[in-house]
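Each record in this resource describes a single protein on a pair of labelled lines. The shape at a given residue is found from the number at the same position. The record below illustrates this layout:

***
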Amino acid sequence: MKTHRKLLCLCCPVGGIGALEKLWKVKVRSEGAVGNSSLGWISWLVPFGVVAICQQVTAEDRHPIKYWMPYGKMCRLVAERYGYVVNRGTIESAHDPRGFARTQAHEQAFSPFVRFVRRWSPYGLVLWWDRTENPLRKSAPVARAVCTAKAPTGADYMREFHALSRQIRQLDDRVRRAETTLQSRLDNLEIQILKLRVQLKTPDVNP
């Protein structure tokens, strides 16, 4: 969809979007935009931008207010807290220590002005815009599966700790065996050197 059409739709009441869709023969509403259970019939009167933002809320979200926060701030927050990498409305990965840096790298595809507008626009609005703009976006089940990926627990960390401890012990054993072998070879070498010295000091006795 063209940019000016999307901007116009965001300002129009949801009740008038159907007429715009018939006029332009394009689909601007995503599934559930009209008749949303959380808004009911009021959703037909409010601007479509409000519905687009509310539509990004999932059942797993405990703080829906985050979709109204600035996009740049939320990208940093979800990257620092969960390691999410946001790319054109989708979550590429989770638990990434470089999540925010990778998110910023994806944003470099836009011009400085567009990056500024995106940075201060509502988080849910930017997600909706990207998801309706990008035809190659991930399917909803895949995106939700990544978003709800289970964070490492204390048991996971303990298993990793025990595995690392076991590897360290194995390396210590190998080092000790190598040191023992080396010392044995050095001792044998010293014995051979002493034998050579003794033979050199002992004169040959001719019969």
Q: What stands out?
A: Strands lie at 86-87, 90-91. Residues 107 and 115 are 7 Å apart (CA to CA).
